Amino acid sequence: MKFNPAENIQDLQYFGEFGGVNPSISDSSTYTFLSAKTMFDTFEGNADGCYLYSRHSTPSNLYLGEALAAMEGTETANVTASGMGAITSVLLQLCSSGDHIVSSRTIYGGTYAFLKNFTPKFGITTSFIDITNLAIVEASITNNTKVLYCESVSNPLLEVADIKGLSALAKKYNLKLVVDNTFSPLSISPAKLGADVVCHSLTKFINGSSDTVGGVVCGTKEFINDLRNVNDGASMLLGATMDSLRAASVLKNMRTLHIRIQQHSKNAAFLADKFEADGLKTVYPGLESHSSNSLYKQMMNTEYGFGGMLTVDVGSLQKANELMELMQHRNLGYLAVSLGFYKTLFSAPGTSTSSEIPEKEQKEMGLSDGLIRFSIGLDNNIERTYKMMKKCMEDVNVL
Ligand SMILES: *Cc1c(COP(=O)(O)O)cnc(C)c1O
């Protein structure tokens, strides 16, 4: 049967303690044991189904984790307090002093800063490369390389990683392929294409209401247990634990994820087509002009579309700022970082979410000043939105 992430989520059911249609929320930080022996066994990791302390795991976090594992087709998952809490614990779990990471150079600014400025303190070094060129990726692998790291659709340039090709390299050199799938939930299923570990910032599309931060690591039981190990597990020891109340609310939001993603994709595809036809420099993986359009088509779960993210280059930072302020003024969206909200969000990544990346490197990777990143909202009438956006563009003379 064909892999369908939304149906996998839908088929998972957990009832509440009293037959509630939603699972009960575990509102406790610690758990009692009937016998001292079971407490000891739980510490040793030998008492399945027993809860110990909520930094380790909670029923609510496990419910959410299982739904996310079902979505990604992995054995299990561990939810975290933020996307960075997921990514940093994965990388610190997989790498020790002296190890090396080969990473895409177009990644989330926080991840870039972590690899560039933070992990060298622990003797972990990273080569940032053009992930779309497998020959360069292979040439960057050294005897010390442990991890290949990328985003399935990159932030903010919307480059698409060839996950199957990267997975073949990872197998050849005995590396772990870690993929951040935040930009393309449901649409791309990296584990099904060979990724070993899949991370998300739940803050974005998956929760979808811009009211919390959250993250998840999806992987094998063995790896997730390693992360939670009381003696040397990065999630357990670094402590980026999600709160149970929040896990319960993210799970409820996930119930509508497939409908939201379809609407985000439909709206973004419509606008991308129009903007491109108007002569704007538009990047959207669903456009035939996108260099990875056919690769995305090979990888995607078709019914969820090419996602809600697009970029438009309006030439200069000043024009970008003028346009964004005007669009906000006319209630077309918000001048804000982040993504996956019901409302359209826009920002200029060069001076915001990717400002951690030095200007010279921004230029090298094609991140220009006038680039506006859009997370297209759930607008009911996207044609009306388009007309209003076009008017804004005309009013600031970018069209
Ligand atoms: C936002 C984001 C992150 C970080 O997630 P937080 O929840 O803010 O910690 C990581 N990767 C990508 C692609 C993101 O967009």
Question: What is the structure about, briefly put?
Answer:
With 399 residues, the chain is α/β, with parallel strands linked by helices.
Structural commentary:
With 399 residues, this protein is α/β, with parallel strands linked by helices. The chain has 2 domains: 5-254, Type I PLP-dependent aspartate aminotransferase-like (Major domain) (Aspartate Aminotransferase, domain 2, 3-Layer(aba) Sandwich), CATH 3.40.640.10; 257-395, Alpha-Beta Complex (Aspartate Aminotransferase, domain 1). The chain is 38% helix and 14% strand. The chain contains 15 helices and 12 strands. The chain has helices at 5-10, 36-43, 59-72, 83-94, 109-118, 134-140, 163-172, 221-228, 234-238, 244-254, 257-277, 293-299, 317-329, 359-364, 382-395, and strands spanning 76-80, 100-104, 125-129, 145-151, 176-180, 197-201, 215-219, 281-283, 309-313, 334-335, 345-347, 371-375. A 7-stranded mixed sheet has the order 1-7-6-5-4-2-3, sandwiched between helices. Strand 4, helix 7 (163-172) and strand 5 (176-180) form a beta-alpha-beta unit. The longest helix has 21 residues, at 257-277. The radius of gyration is 21 Å and the shape is globular. The mean pLDDT is 95. Its cofactor is pyridoxal 5'-phosphate. Belongs to the trans-sulfuration enzymes family. This is Cystathionine beta-lyase. Keywords: Lyase, Pyridoxal phosphate. The modification N6-(pyridoxal phosphate)lysine is found at residue 204.
